[in-house]
Every structure is written in structure tokens, then in C-alpha cells.
Amino acid sequence: MVEEVKQTDEQLVQDTGRSQFSDLWKKEDYWAIWLGGILLLIGLIVFLPQGTSDINKQILEANTVLETEAAKAPFKTVAWYQAVDTKAKLKASNSSIGKKLKVLTSQPGKWTVNPFEALILGEDRSAVKNAKATKKFNDINHECQIALQLALQAQTAAGAVDFQNMSLNKSAEDAIDNWRRTSANASKAKKNTKIKAYNLLPSLFLLMGILALFFGVGLKVMGGAFWKFIPGFCFVFAIAVVAYMASNNQTMKQYGIGYAAWAILFGLIISNTIGTPKWVMSAVQTEYYIKTGLVLLGAEILFGKILSIGIPGIFVAWIVTPIVLLTTFWFGQKVLKIPSKTLNMTISADMSVCGVSAAIATAAACRAKKEELTLAVGLSLVFTSIMMIVMPAVIKATGMPFILGGAWMGGTIDATGAVAAAGAFLSEKALYVAATIKMIQNVLIGIIAFFVALYWVAKVDREKGKKLSYMEIWHRFPKFVLGFITASILFSLLYEYLGKDMAYVVIDHGVIRGLTKNFRGWFFCLAFVSIGLATDFRQLKGYFKGGKPLILYICGQSLNLALTLLMAYIMFYLVFTDITDKI
Amino acid sequence: MMSEKHWLFRTGVFLSCCFFVIVFIWFLAPAAKNFSFLKAHFLFIEDRGIDANAMYYTEIEEFSEAETNMVHSLEYPPKK
After folding, report:
1. Lowest CB count within 10 Å: A319, A345, A348, A514, which one?
2. Alpha carbons A291 and A149: distance in angstroms, whole number
């Protein structure tokens, strides 16, 4: 299997088109499912028991306060928000085992001037950082305390007339909004006062060893050379660490230039200058890492979340997105006549859904080439940085309501992190709406990957005039997509079974944010390093000719901007105004 | 001789690329932040500690907060 991959390694995903029972241990797709499944199972075993009766009691107490406060006033009171904050702090990842797993799987840390601080931070340096941050926190916290007092006073004044005075109610609401804004700043500032000294080198070496065995065992069973894989993997892992270090530079975080771009860049620099060493090539297993990462990503696609913002969010995220995706794909095929369908689909999904994560899932589902994924990631990065800065300015300049602006940004800015930055820059409400719309789009990846895979197998890859039987479709269907979808369905069902509140504690902030999300990040980073190490820049240059990918992106994004704004306005301000009032 | 010259050239290109990465991270990118229309935006991101390069909703704390607020706003709406 490994030798087959090497000979036809242009495509991101390979498939031989025949199924046998031995595929279960010989094929990469199935190994991605087993390996991803093992990690998900470990996560469940570790974190599900953290949902104790004590946690349940705290949830019930907070819910009682929420019910009481909701019945008291026509706006969200201080106590209402404090009850929400209490529930938000209940996280299984804060348990002792959760903290140990976090240390094991953590990426290099943040740094400003000295990159080695990403790996090692001494006591004296952490003390200096904490002292500086403490001064800043004290100022912000003082402001927050004043804002809280003013909010309580305004609330009391409104309550004194039984909340019958609209003007007093509005004043109370504004004062509480101001308190929430300063509270969010204070909370972030407080985190910066608790920086402990660390040395990530031992945990990184341990993680490297664990992952080398993790992937090496599967590779060995598939017929690969285990002992050739190990040193190569260490090299790929080291480049992944450097990519994470670059992405965690404070300035790079602000620009939104993530590990995917750095991993590809560093890989490209090595492969196109000094050349990727031959002994590394056995560990350049792009599809193996990506498929395993995608199975883990499946568990993060929780269908219950599409109801988080109610019907308006579903219309904006789940109606507009497929329309833009299909229209852009059609435009690329029929108008621009882009030679590569897979490039067209990858860029269309990247732009219309949610950036790099959508590009990865779609590229794998339609068997795109590595260069095509690289190009899609690059385009997304450039436009994300621009839109993250320009859109909030446009929204403010046009006097657009912030809820509408938030929905607009959430549905159009590619990168999830950039959506948060742009939304928060406007206001907390804009952030809430933007983030929720983007999250609903994130959940759409599963459906899109499945149907793209099906369409490609049933229509695109078949011989002209030949009709494929269902068995043939099954033979050719990329099996890891089934693992991806199954993980999504199982975790979505588990989420509903546990109930929103407990699922938040043990699934959202347990299995996912406490374990599998970190592994998934590492796997994608390894995959992007592998893409860079295996890509000849001359092959990449060919895709830029004529500028068709750029034209496709611009035209598709223009449609996305127009349609999203229209749909958001109709849904939030014409049709479902009662939901908008509750936000 | 030819292959040694070729190898030296490739090593030179590699080191040049590394140099450009360093210049970008340490000098160009920080300098560009000082443009007036960008400054406020970047200062805000720095103060809030937002990870603008996060790839998926589970990687960013603001999304969890946003979802929590939205869910509770719909489930426990204030009386009107």
C-alpha cells in the first residue's frame, strides 16, 4: 500500500477501486478510522467520568438562577450573566488528568521576540511577564468593577419601578453591555497574569515518540518499513514544531497566518532548495496524517450545534453556503473553464464554507492534488487577512447594525479565528452572532465532504457512458469519509443523550478541547509539512497561469458577500425578529 | 565540481529563504502593524488575546463563549 502511494503520489487521496476483507488492516483509509477511533475512545474513557453529580448540582443551581432572572426583568440581568459564567467554567479538561493530557499534546507557546520562549520559559522571565500583565490587569479589573457597580445601580433603578420605565430599562441594558465588554477584557488580562514557567521539550519528545509509534504500527501492518519511517517521522515532526513556533508568534497570530501556511512554506523551502532527504520520504505520508486528522475532526462536527442560533442562523449558514459552493463550482467549470475540477471544488469549498478545514476535507474527498490544496490554503490566507480588517471598518462606516454585520462576517470570512477577531472588534453581540454562524458552517463540512466524495465517485471519476453499480461506488468511495461521518453522528447522538449542559462539560470541554482537537492539529500540521516536502514549486507555478484560481475566488466571494448579507438581513430583521431581540 | 557548485547554490537559496522568513516575522510584519488604519485592529486582537489564525471553532475560546451566550439567550430569554 505504501509503495502504491509513492508511485502515484500526486493526488492527495488514493483508491484502488476494489474491496477485500483484508482492506480492514491493509488500507490506509481503515487505519485512519482505527487510529482516530482509538483516540476518540481514549477521550471518552478519560473524560466521560468527569461528569460527576457535583457538576450536575452546580448546573442545576445555575439553571435555577437563570430561570429566576429571566422571569424578573425584560433584559438579561447581572445575575443572569453571572450564572452563565458559572456554567461556562465547568470543564472536564480542568481536571488533573485533563491538565496532564493538555501538557502532553500542547503545541509550542506564544512568543514575541525570542522564539525559544515558545519551548522554554524560565521562572525569571515568567515573573517579568506576570508582573507586566498584573499591572495591566489591575487597571482593567478596576474599570470592570466600576462598570459592574454602575450596571447594578442601573439595574436596581430599573427594578425600583418594576421595570416599567423603558428609558431606565435601556440604561440598565447599556450599562450591563458595557460591564460585559470590560469583563471580557478583564478575563483575558487575568489569564496573562498566570503564566507559569515551562519546558516543553520533554513533552514534545514524548509526543514525537508516541506519534511515531502510533503511525508507525499502522504503516508496518500495511507493508511499510517501520524502522525507515521512524527517523523520517522525527524530521517531519521537527518541521511541524517549527511551523507551530512560527504561527504562535504574536504578530503572526494577529495577522491570522496559521500553522498550515508555515508548514507548507517550510516544507516547500526545504524540498525546492537543499531537497528533501531520501530517508525522510518514508515519513512523508500526507494522506495518512490527513485522513486520521479528519476522523478526529468528525467528532467535532456536532449537528446539535446548528440549532444554537435558531432558524435564522441555519438559513444564513446552510442555505447560502451550498448555493455559493455550487454556483462557484459551476462558474469555474462553465465560464472560467478551469482545467482541474478538483482544484475548482477545493477553492469553492474553501471560500464558501470555512477556509482551511473545509479545503482539507473537500480535497481529501475529491482526491485533489497536493498542489491544489496548497493553492486553496494560500488564497484563503491572503483574503482572510484582508477581510478581517476591512469588513469591520465597512460595517462601522455604513452604520450597519452589529448583529447584521456579525452574521455577514461569520458567513463570509474564511478562517474561524479571523471571524472571532473581526466580530469582537465590533462588539460582543457581533462576536456572538459571527461566531455562531461560522460554527454552523463548520458543522456543514461533514455533509459537504460526504456528498463531494459521492459525486466524485459516482459521476466525475467514472468512464464516460459507463454506469456504476452501487458495489462499484462502494469500492471506490473513500472509506475514511465514512469514519469521519460516523464519528460525527456518534458524537452528535452522544451530545444529545447527555444534554447540552453536561455535554458542554465532558464532550466540548473534555474529549474534544481536552484531547482530540490537539491531536487533530498535530496531524494536520504533519500533513501540511508533508505536502511542502513533496511539492515541486515548478508544479505549483503552473496553477497560477491565467489567474483563473484568483478570479474564481474573487467572483465566488463577491457572490458570497452579496447573498450572505441579503439572507442575514431577511432572516434577522424581517422574518425572525423575535430571535434577534433575544440576542 | 559541478555538483558541489550546484549544492552550494541550493544551500545559498535555502539560507536566503530562511533569511527572508526571519525578516518578515521580526521586521516587516511588525512594521506593517503600525499603519494607522491597522494599528487599532491589531492592538485590539493583542489585548483580547484572540487567536486569529485558528482553523476550526473548537480551537478558539471566543466561539465557546459565543455559543454559550447564544444558547442561553434562546433558552432563558428575559420576559418582554
Report:
1. A319
2. 52
Find the helix or strand (DSSP H, E) in which A79 lies.
helix A78-88
CB proximity A565 to B under 8 Å: no
Same domain, yes or no, for A206 and A286? yes
Is the same domain home to B28 and B59? no
Is there a domain that residue A58 lies in? Answer: no
Q: Residue A538: helix, strand or coil by DSSP?
A: helix
The answer to whether residue A407 is domain-embedded is yes
Q: Residues 169..208 of A with a Cβ closer than 8 Å to B: which? A: 184-185, 188-189, 191-192
Instruction: Give the residue numbers spanning the domain of B45.
Output: 35-80
What is the DSSP-derived secondary structure letter of residue A199? E
Residue A3, Cβ neighbours under 10 Å: how many? 9
Burial (CB < 10 A; 0-12, 13-18, 19+), residue A143, is middle
> Does residue B28 belong to the interface with chain A, where contact is any CB pair within 8 Å?
no
The answer on B39 and B21 residing in a single domain is no
Tens digit of pLDDT for each residue in A509-557? 999 999 999 999 999 999 999 999 998 888 777 777 678 999 999 999 9
Q: Which domain holds residue A137?
A: 123-196
The verdict on a CB contact (< 8 Å) between B63 and A305 is no
Q: Are residues A384 and A481 located together in one domain of the fold?
A: yes
B54/A contact by beta carbon, under 8 A:
yes
Show the DSSP H helices in A89-122 as ranges.
96-105
Q: Are residues B27 and B39 in the same domain?
A: no
Q: Which of A369, A321, A322 is nearest to A344 (CA)?
A: A369
pTM, rounded to two decimals: 0.90
Number of structural domains found in chain B: 2
Q: What is the pLDDT of residues A399-437, one digit of tens each?
A: 999 989 999 999 999 988 899 989 988 888 888 889 888
B27 with B42, same domain: the answer is: no
Nearest neighbour of B52 by CB, restricted to A76, A421, A500: A421
